[in-house]
Structures are given as C-alpha cells and as structure tokens.
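Hi! If you just cloned this repository, the fastest way to understand the data is to look at a raw example. We've pasted two of them here, unedited. The first protein comes first, obviously.
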Amino acid sequence: MSELGDYNPPNKWVWDKENGGKFANINRPISGSTHQKELPLGKHPFQLYSQGTPNGIKITIMLEELLELGIKDAEYDAWLIRIGKGEQFSSGFVEINPNSKIPSLIDNSGNKSIKVFESGSILIYLADKFQNFIPKSFDDRTECLNWLFWQMASAPYLGGGFGHFYAYAPKKFEYPIDRFSMEVKRQLDVLDKLLSDKTYICNEEYTIADIAIWSWYGALVLGRLYGAEEFLDVKSYKNVVKWANLINERPAVKRGRIVNKISGNLDEQLHERHDSSDFNEKTEDKLVK
C-alpha cells in the first residue's frame, strides 16, 4: 500500500484483495453469489434479511412502528445476515437482491412474493402499503421524499467516507478524514438549521424521513457511530440532538434498533426476531441507554 501522495494510478486498475482495510475479505469488484445457500423462511408475511447497521435498523424500526399502531399484517421474521462473513453473497440472498446489500425484504402477503431491496425503497413500499408514516397530501409527500433521498445520497459520505477513513482504514490519513469530516459537519448543520423551528423533519409529522435520517445521524449525535462524537463536536448541533433524543424514546425505536444487532452490549442485541415475545427478556431499562 502506498503512502498518501506517492501513488501513481496504473493505466489499468487491478484488484488487490489484500488492499482495502477491515472489509477487504468481502469487498470485490464483481457481483453475483460466492456460495450456494438458500435463505430461511418464517411464518410471517414479511421476511427480512438484514444486520443491525444504520441501514438495517431503518426497516426494523419501521416494522415495529407499524406493529405499535396495531397493524398485525406488518408482522415479520428478521433473519440475521452477517455481512462481515459474506453471507449477503449467498445464492439465496443474491436472488432477492443482485446488489448483495442489506437490508432486503420479501413480502409474502399477496398472491405472489414481492422482493424489495434498498432501505429507502423498502421504507416507501411499507409506508405506501400500510398508508402510514408518509404524508397524504402530494406536496407534503414530496417534501418527505426530498429528505428521504437526501439521506440516501448523504449517508455514503458519513459511512463509506468519514466512517471508513476515520474508523476502518488500515492507516489514518489527514486529507480524506478532513475532507469527509467537513462534509459530515456540513450535513449536520443542514439538519440543525432545518430542525430549528420544527419537531420532526417534515414539520410536526413523524415520517419515514425521520426514521431514515435518525438511523444514521441520530446514532451519530447520540454517540453510537465510530466513537466520533467528540471529534465531530456533535453536541454543538443542539437541534439535531434534541430531535435524536425525542425519537430515541419511542418504544418502537427502542425495539427496532436492537434487531439483528451483533455489536455492543449483549443487552442491546437481538440477533433474530420472529415474534414480539422475543423482546420479553429485554426489559425497558435494558433496551436503550
């Protein structure tokens, strides 16, 4: 691996599996499956294959929010896909999502199975299917989708950019960390100004935009991402912190954010979820601290 500044790109890039840091063993420049394995199936209408990353918890939070409203048709099985072990490259997973990224969902509630992938697409699908957590009016719906797609476009700077170079890269280099820190702080400033005179992202209505943005930026300002809260001075974004804490107290969020989670305190991990009773041993005071 070259030092920063002394790398001259070759005429033709060649894949070096030893170059890439923490995830070099699973990152590759080709698509498709690496091994044959069928996915498990549970009894509920929705089958979710995921891991409790910021993208993954968007969907478990959404499903738990729907169940919190008493919508029994939103019952789901959440199967753990350990992305660090490359389980997203199984033949069964690739059949659902050719892009091999979590989360991926199957809806078996109708006459035929519907496959949905990309977290933003799944959120819209569930919101439209159950007519909840998305505004009814065209104008307000557009505003909600503006911010949902803002998150989808912005988070790669936070995760793949800042998170990679700050937390996961094999060596720390000032230039990429500075570059992505600046962008993440700009994004936090965007949110802080947006939330200066409203409770939620879309005024007073809690929507899929809040779920999507909270799963990344809420986690960041609550000190749950990359150990970077002091480095990024996240507490200075007071409106974002207030909003993040408000959502953090929602019962469905407390449940959803621990589903398929495999890191952190054991009390905050529920590797698979197949019934609401799976949360029984996780008392309210253990769910979120």
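Ok, and the second one:
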Amino acid sequence: MEETERLVETHRWERPGIRSPHDRGYKKSLSRPGEFLHFLKKYVKADWMMELEECDLDLCDKEMLERDYAGKEADLLYRVHVPGGREVYIFILQELQSYVDYTMIFRVLIYVVNTLVKYFLDTDKKERERVGFRLPSMVPIVFYNGQDRWTAARSLEEYQSGGHLFGRHILNLEYYLVDLAEIEEEYILSTNRVLDNIMYCDKYRKKLELVGAVRAACDRVRKLGLQEQEEFRNWVKYILLSVCDNSEALVDEILSWAGNGEDDMAFEYTFVRVFREEREKVREEAREEGLAEGHAEGRAEGRVEAKTEDILELLEELGAVPEDLKERISGQKDWDTLRNWLKLAARVRSIEEFKGRISMSR
C-alpha cells in the first residue's frame, strides 16, 4: 500500500518514541480536575471514587512525576483527599499506541516504588518514625486506546513465575484498566464532555467512519463552552493534519464544514474529497515523472484511471460492487461525469442507491 493510502486509511500514525500531537489532547483534558473526576466516575467506576468531589483532587506538578525503568514518566499524578483524612495518589499511564505493552505491570511497580521512596525521604525523619505514620496509597490506572485486545498481566502476582502459589507472602499490586475498544459507543455518548467526544472519535480508524464521528462530535461540542470547543477543535485538527499531509488549507476547509451546521452528506463529501485530491496529486506527480513532456493524452488517461479507482474504493466500503457496475464505471471516460459520480459515491448509503442514481442521470 502506498504511503499516502496508508495515511488515509487510518487517522493515527506513529513513530517509535514519539507521541503524536493529538495524544497530548488527552493529557490536556485529564489535567483539569473536573474532567479527571468525570473519567474516574464514568470509565474507572471504583466504588470509592463515586463519593469524590472536584475539590478533593489536586494535580501534582511535574517534579512529583517519577520515572520507570525505561526513563518514562507517568502521564499525570493526582493527590486525592478521601474521607477520614487519608491521602491517596492516583497516577495514570496513557498507552496511546497500537500495541500491547507486556511490561506494563513492572513499569507500574517502578512508578509506585519510586514515588513512595521520594515521599518517604521528603518526610521529616521524626514524622516518618512516628508510630502512626503511614505511606499514602498509590492507585495506578492504565488507559489504552489500541485496537488489539489487552492481554498483558494486570497484577504483579500474575507477572511473577508461580506467583499464585504464595498468596499474600509475595509483593502484589494491580492496576485499573480502561480499554477504549471495550467501551460501547452508546455509553461514551451518554454524557457530553470534551473527553467523551475525544474518546468517541478515537474509536474510529477508517476514514468514512471517522467522518461520521467527527461530524457527530462537532455537533455535540457546540453545546459546550467556548474553551471546551476550542480544546476539541485543536485535538481534531491534529488528527486531520496527520492524514492530510500537514496541509493547513485542507484541514481548515474540513473544519469550516464541521462547524457551520450544513447537512451531513455535504460535510462527508468535503471530508472525502480532500483525501482524494491529496492522493490524486501524489499519483499525478508520480505519473508525470515517467511521462515525456507533451504527452497530455497519457496524463489525462492517468487522471481518469485514478478517478475510477477512487469511485470503486468508496463503493467497496459499502459492500461488494457487482461486476456490471464495475464495468460501467471503468468504461466511463468523461471527466465531468466521473467527478459527479465520485461526489455521489461519497454521499450514498448503499450500492443500490448509487446504481439507481446514475441510471436516472442517463
């Protein structure tokens, strides 16, 4: 598959060791105590979290974040005040990648140990030697948005060879797992927060599915405050830049449709068209490298062929394309007709609708 096609097919691409910009949208959202509390109550759902209020959460500064064995920091660390004056630290690790990290529980262990050591040493010696001194509880959360099922060990007992044999006589801990792929769309959309809409869009990787998710989320976000709308728009822009070859003009056009209240089909066509234009440009440049100057006819044929392929690819996302329809599309050489058919293919809901519409236009 060509590089451009790969970028169009999925809305997220990754390079080892580099977090894509839109991943930071999660961190920005979860850095607000109100949004983090919403995440805890809706997506983690531990009983003890349900009584918490926003005023109970304090986001710790960067100096408090410890590193694991590979030198990575936890994404966020909150100090939580629970009833009875007890102190709890909740830290979250965002596994915003396509693969499962089978060392996760060991990473969690290192975070916990490093944080508790720091807390112990930062406490006055007389205080920590007091009979009633206690270390704070450490609560780890792993948020995973990959497509593969999470199969890594979730407890330290499970990660140790024969750990189940020794009961409470070996070190153990377990993290809460929030796996985006396991959360139903309807449940995410049951509330309307910036984080909900980010998670909803992030569930979809194919371009036409993403089109619908972005459109629906944009409609929902318009009901939020201006700050929330801007936060969501910036996150969506990062996604679109990654699949539009960093073209600001294309992204701005898509976003202008996303926010102006026009009908869904017009928005969908605009979204799909910019992908097609970008890919057609790449194809055209590649063909021109192999064509001598003045071969205008050859270039025109290449453009027709590319347009035909685009129409068929759009229709194939709706189902199997009958052979007679393939032949009719492939046999069409009129450029304006093909452009109209491409628009139609981006708007119809079924192959049967497409066949009926082009038959009527004869």
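That's it. A detail worth noticing about the second one: The CA atoms of residues 307 and 339 lie 7 Å apart.
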